[in-house]
Amino acid sequence: MIRNILNELTVRGVRHLIISALFFVVYALCGTAIMLTVLFLIDRHISGESVSLISAAWILVGLLILKTISNAVADMSKHFAGFDLVERIREKIILKLKMFSLGFYTNERLGEISTVIHKDVDNMEMVVGHLWTRMSADFIVALILGIGLFWVDWHMGLAMIAILPIALFSLYRGIRSGMKAQQEAQDGLTDMVSLFVEYVKGIPMLKVFGGKGMFRDRLDHSVSEFGESSKNASRLAAVSVGRYTFLIELAFALMATLGLWWTWRGELSLFAYLMFVIVSKEFYKPFVNMESHWLNYIKVKDSYERISRLLDAPVIVDPDQPKTAERFDLSFDGVGFHYEKEGFEMKDLTFNVPERTVTALVGSSGSGKTTITNLLLRFWEPQAGCIRIGGVDIREMDYDYLLGKISVVMQNVILFSDTIANNIKVGNRNATQGEIEEAARRAMIHDFIVSLPDGYETKIGENGLGLSGGQKQRLSIARAFLKDAPILLLDEITSNVDPVNEYKIQQAMSVLIRKRTVLVIAHHLQTIRNAHQIIVMDKGQLMEKGMHAELEAKGGMYCKLLSMQ
Ligand SMILES: Nc1ncnc2c1ncn2[C@@H]1O[C@H](COP(=O)(O)OP(=O)(O)O)[C@@H](O)[C@H]1O
Ligand SMILES: [Mg+2]
Which stretch of DSSP H or E encloses residue 261? Predict the structure, then answer.
């Protein structure tokens, strides 16, 4: 993982990382040198030798300045390295987001993407930029000082590190068991939060049906479970850190005691002894902070995995040799599909929609009608089979080309906070005012638009604030007229509309569907009597196929749907 993260950095970023670490090393060594100089001066003084105080002062001041400068340089470079990394990752994510199929953007995904962009990317900057530079510097310093101290006296050196392996092993064990407990606490938190969300969403229902008691028991249980698992995790962490800290201090105490004994016996000079006592603090530093280094590593790993998941998710790639369609009939050939979540499953779906005919999709809610249109638009990719337009696999077409051949009018119209004219122009950005008005006229919305004070230049709010459902729907029909694509998908367009609007929409529709290949999903079965073909869906399966009269005579599922209305 570390290598992958470093690979994300630009050359400049790596340079900043190295500079920062090196200057932190200089910074720490200056600190030690200052202490050693003072120690040296005292030693000289005690042994009655003369020292030049002036030159000593110069050395101290020089070291102090060097220390300050290195700190500033290291600090600055670590920020640069961090920003470099963050910038690179954000750039990559943004590039990638454009290439995902729309089906990628489930609610959970949106949550995850926002976590990645906010938290994980910042984590990377914090840990890789700020902490890892310091940490590697600490280890380099420990190595240099360790070698130096061994060189001064290897007995003392051994005493200094004797207990370290035991301490590190104990920390490793502690972390392993702590992580398990941490995971349990994390799972508990997830459970609790989703239960809370369910509860809050369901409050109106619970109020109406008086089911609060039942839910409260579940919530209470989940809250106390989370409490227990968190306490357990904290307890384990505290024990492990406590034990580790004790062992490191024991390592120091052992060295200090042995050193004292050796000094008394005259085997070690006082100067060397004091040097060990003072300098070993710096030597132990990275080990003392080991626990937090480890936690940071886990944090970065977690963030990095989420970032990688996002960056490695499959995208829609245009083919090397894109094909175009000569005709615009549709065919689903043995299409098999399921969403990421278990449950709904479409199996071996096969049907044709001849060019310039109308096929109606009917079936109870959840039977997979909208899914069929989503597959045609490549919002999701089928796991089996093939979808063709004019005999060409839609995966062999450029994606923009495919989308250009399909107009969609759906139940939920998406409008932008812009003028009415610009909202219609979504259908065709190069349209002239005349073409826009013609489209609006055909969509039976022109009269309404010109009755507004600013006419076509009237600003509408986000999602068409200030327009009725039917008016929004007719704007989206105007878009479809303007786009003039050979294939038309209509998904329950009149389900949220009052009768007057519905009448106008039906009229506009009867013009719009002429000479196009149409897939229409309608919940009023009356409206699709005249379709050339009706396909009855149930649980993702095609149950019946035929014209209205045929299916009515057959007395199957279609009849059941009819009688339910
Ligand atoms: N994005 C999605 N992720 C997971 N399941 C989905 C998603 N969209 C729809 N479904 C499920 O797929 C099934 C078919 O949905 P849909 O095609 O919208 O049905 P219809 O349009 O016939 O009402 C439903 O059970 C629905 O819950
Ligand atoms: Mg639907």
Answer: helix 212-264
> Which CA distances in Å does 284 have to 32, 135, 140, 210?
13, 12, 12, 62
What pLDDT is attached to residue 102? 67
Of 279, 277, 293, the residue nearest 244 (C-alpha): 293
Quick check: helix, strand or coil at residue 47?
A: coil
How much is the pLDDT for 283? 94
CA 344 – CA 104 distance, rounded (Å): 17
Point out the least confidently predicted range of 71-80, 89-98, 262-271, 346-355: 89-98
**pLDDT of 299 strictly over 90:** no
Res 88: pLDDT: 87
Query: For residue 540, is it left (φ>0), alpha (ψ between -120 and 50) or beta?
Result: left
- Enter the DSSP assignment of 210: T
Answer yes or no: is pLDDT of 469 > 90. Answer: no
Structure tokens belonging to residue 311 = 């960056």
Ligand nearest to the CA of 535: 1
Distance 546 CA to ligand 1 centre (A): 24
- SS3 of 50-91: the string is CCCHHHHHHHHHHHHHHHHHHHHHHHHHHHHHHHHHHHHHHH
Best substitution site from 371, 490, 541 to test ligand 1's pocket, by max atoms within 8 Å of Cβ?
Answer: 371
Q: What percent of the chain has pLDDT over 70?
A: 98
Rounding to the nearest 10 degrees, give the CA dihedral for residues 190, 193, 198, 199. Answer: 140
Residue 2 pLDDT more than 80? no
Q: Which ligand is nearest to the CA of 410?
A: 2
Render pLDDT for 136-185 as a digit per residue (tens, 0 to 9).
999 999 999 999 999 999 999 999 999 999 999 999 998 888 888 888 88
CA–CA distance, 86 with 125 (Å, rounded to integer): 6
Ligand 1 atom with least separation from CA of 492: 21
429 C-beta closer than 6 A to ligand 1: no
pTM over 0.90? The answer is: no
- Give dist(CA 37, CA 67) in Å, integer: 14
Distance in Å from the first CA to the final CA of the chain: 59
> Which protein residue's CA is at the shortest distance from atom 17 of ligand 1?
368
Q: Which domains does the chain have, with CATH numbers?
A: 2-311 (1.20.1560.10), 330-564 (3.40.50.300)
